[in-house]
Each structure stands twice: as C-alpha cells, then as structure tokens.
Write a structure and sequence with these properties.
By secondary structure, this protein is mainly α. The protein has 13 helices and no strands. Helix 5 packs across helix 7.
C-alpha cells in the first residue's frame, strides 16, 4: 500500500512538473510575441521585407508581361491601366521589369548575407580563439576594409565580369571583414568567461568550445549585422548595375532600369521614380528591421535611448 501511494505521489509530482514546464513555455512565448508586436520598428520592417519577399517569390505571377518583351509602338508610354508603371524606351513594361529587378536584389542580398554569415563567423571565431590566426586574418580584413567598399566592388566585378554570381562574390568579399570583426569582438568577450576556462580545464576540445559554447553567444550581434549587410548589398548592387558593372542588360535590375531612365528623366519620369522607390523601400525596411532586432535582442540599447 505504501509503495502504491509512493508511486501515485511520484506520478502526480511528474505531472505537476510537466504542467508547470508547459505553462512556463507558454508564458515565455507570449512574452516574446508581446515584445515583438510592441516593437514598431520591427513590425514595420518585417512587413516591408515580407512584402518584398512575396514580390520576389511570385514575380512571374505578378508581372503582366515578360520583362524582355519589346514593343516599339508603345515606347515611353506614361502609366496607364495597361502599363501601370508605364513603358521604357524599348517599349518594355516597367512594372514587369521592376518586379523581376526586385527579385534580383533580394537574391543578391540574401546570397551575400548567407555567404558572409558562414565565412565571417568562421574567421571571427578562430581569430578570437587562436592568437596567431588573429594576427594573420585580421590584417587581411584590415587591408580589405582600407579600400572604399563601392570602389573595391567595382574593381572586382570589372575583373570577374558582369554576372549575378560575380556580383555576389564581389559583395561578399567586401562584407566579410565587417562581419568577421563583429563576431570576433563578441567571441573575445565570451572567451574570457569563467566557464570557458572550466571547459578547458576539463579537457574540452577547441571545436566543442568554439561551436557549442562561443558561437551561440555571438548570434545576437551577428543577426543585427547581417540585416545591415543585406541592406548595403541591395544598395551596392543597384549602384553597380547603374554604373554598368553589375547585372548586364537586358536582364532586369533596379540599377540598370534607373540607368535607362537617366537619359529620359525629364520626359519619362516613371522610369526613375518607381525603381528608385523600390530601392528606397528595400533599404529602409531592412534598416528598420535591424534596428528593431537590436532593441529586441538587446533591451539595454532601448533603455539607453530612452
């Protein structure tokens, strides 16, 4: 009888513990969602980015015409019911080209963010952990950061050639040093913690210390930096395409659409206004999202501003 009572009490204790754990998880989720929706910058930036992602994903369905379809009889037509953004100097539908140009910007920004996250994290972590590597890798990063980013990107794309892949490579090269330095700074702080010394004393390997204990503590500043890198990549890609060093025509890009509209800016304003607005919305949305993430992941920054 006593054994049955003990088993019953144990089962009740386990059930109450499980219920308390579930309740704690629910309260934690509601707290996170509450902080998310109360952050206006994060919500507005997230809505803008989500809209741009949907445009990029469903570009073929949204575009009423092919971005390459030319009609000389319809050249430089103002916005109308048939061509809501008007037509360009080759009779192509500007709305269709802007939609596909937005897709190119999102693909370039996402690809650069992904590459710089992977490579920059590896460089930053190993630089923080090994002093010899730190001297070598950080001097290389300093050398790359000594050149203005836009000039280095132009030089790299001129050497590699005008294509989507080469633009991603060039923008990744100029963005990796900044990401690596952010990760290195966060990792150096973690490296001095007592529990890292305890892990070394217990015989933990460098891989375990780097990727299971140091890397997770660099996520917050890394995410914020990646949103900035995404925004800068979208902007520089448009600049490169505008200068003729990025995506080569007739492939649609917001930058080369602006270049085509430069010649007829006084007679066909729609060729510069609409792609310019898309670039503005992309960069603004990404920056707002990054600022919101900073406030969400680092509450002290929000208190400092207040």
């Amino acid at each position: 009888m006593n054994a049955e009572t003990l088993q019953t009490e144990t089962a009740l204790d386990r059930k109450s513990f499980a219920d308390a754990r579930k309740r704690l998880h629910r309260e934690r989720r509601s707290l996170i969602f509450g902080r998310f929706w109360s952050n206006r910058l994060l919500v507005i930036g997230g809505l803008v980015i989500s809209s741009l992602l949907l445009v990029a994903l469903f570009a073929p369905a949204l575009a009423p015409f092919s971005p390459y379809e030319m009609d000389a009889a319809q050249r430089l037509q103002p916005p109308s019911a048939k061509h809501i953004f008007g037509t360009d100097n080759f009779g192509r539908d500007v709305f269709s080209r802007v939609v596909f140009g937005t897709r190119v910007s999102i693909v370039v920004g996402f690809s650069v963010a992904l590459v710089t996250t992977i490579v920059g994290t590896v460089i930053g972590l190993y630089s923080a952990y090994y002093k010899m590597l730190d001297h070598i890798l950080m001097r290389i990063c300093d050398g790359l950061m000594a050149f203005p980013g836009i000039l280095l990107a132009i030089a790299l794309t001129a050497a590699l050639g005008s294509s989507l892949v080469n633009v991603v490579i060039a923008l990744s090269i100029i963005s990796i040093p900044t990401v690596a330095r952010v990760v290195r700074s966060a990792a150096l702080v973690v490296k001095e913690q007592v529990y890292i010394e305890a892990l070394k004393a217990q015989g933990a390997g460098s891989w375990r210390i780097l990727w299971l204990h140091m890397a997770p503590n660099t996520v917050s500043p890394l995410i914020i930096q990646i949103t900035y890198t995404f925004a800068v990549s979208v902007l520089i890609e448009a600049v490169l395409s505008f200068l003729g060093a990025g995506i080569a025509p007739p492939s649609p890009s917001l930058g080369n659409i602006l270049y085509d509209g430069k010649v007829v800016i006084y007679t066909a304003w729609w060729m510069t206004v609409f792609p310019g607005l898309l670039i503005l919305l992309s960069v603004l949305g990404l920056n707002l999202f990054g600022d919101g993430l900073r406030d969400l992941l680092d509450p002290y920054s929000n208190k400092t501003r207040k």
